[in-house]
Model the fold of this input.
Amino acid sequence: MSDWRPWRCGRLVGWIAAAALLHVVPAAPAPIEPDLVVNALPLGKAERQALQRLGVRAQPGRYWYDSVSGAWGIERGPTAGFIAAGLRLGGALRPDASGGGTGVFINGRELHPLDVAGLSQIVQVIPGRWWVNAQGFFGPEGGPVWGNLWLLARQRQGSRSPWSGYSADGKQFLGFDGSGNGYFQGSNPVGGPTTW
Done:
C-alpha cells in the first residue's frame, strides 16, 4: 500500500506552497549605478559626446564640474584640472561637491582644504563667497573684479619668460604667454591630457 499518511501529505503541500512563493515573489533587482556622474546627475549620450569632442576620455566615476571656471574634480575632492568652461554637464554645482569645511566658496562650491592651500601660495585666501571665471579673473560674489589668479601666479613665481614651468612631478604645466594669458596643461585622472 501507499506510504502517504495524512501528516506527510500536509508537509509536502507546505513545501510545494513555500517553493511556489519563492518563485512568485521575485527578488528586487539591484539598482544599476550610472558609470559617469557629474554634479550628482548621470551624463547622457549628448554630454558624453561633447566631452569626446574636447578630447576628454572620462573614466567611470563621480565628478564635480564648475561651468563658470572650467574647474573639475572627483566628487568630495579638490580641483583636479580644468576643461572648457560653459559646458552643460550633469546637474548644478553643489556647495558640498568638494566636501568643504573651509568657509571659502568659489562659484557656489565650498573649496576643499587642498584648494585653499594651493590658492594660499599665490593670494591671501579670505573666507567668504567669491567668483572666478575661466580667464582667472576673480572677485567677491556679485561684485567687481579684484584681480587675476593667473597673473598673480605668474608674479608669485617671478617668471619673466612666456612660460612658467612644470610641476615638481613633471606632469602638469602652468604658464603664461607674452600677452599675460594663462595656460594649464597636464594629465588628469579622468583620462587623457587636459589643456586650458
Observations:
- DSSP finds four helices and 14 strands in the chain.
- Helices lie at 6-24, 45-53, 113-120, 149-157.
- Residues 6-24 form the longest helix (19 residues).
- The chain has a mean pLDDT of 76.
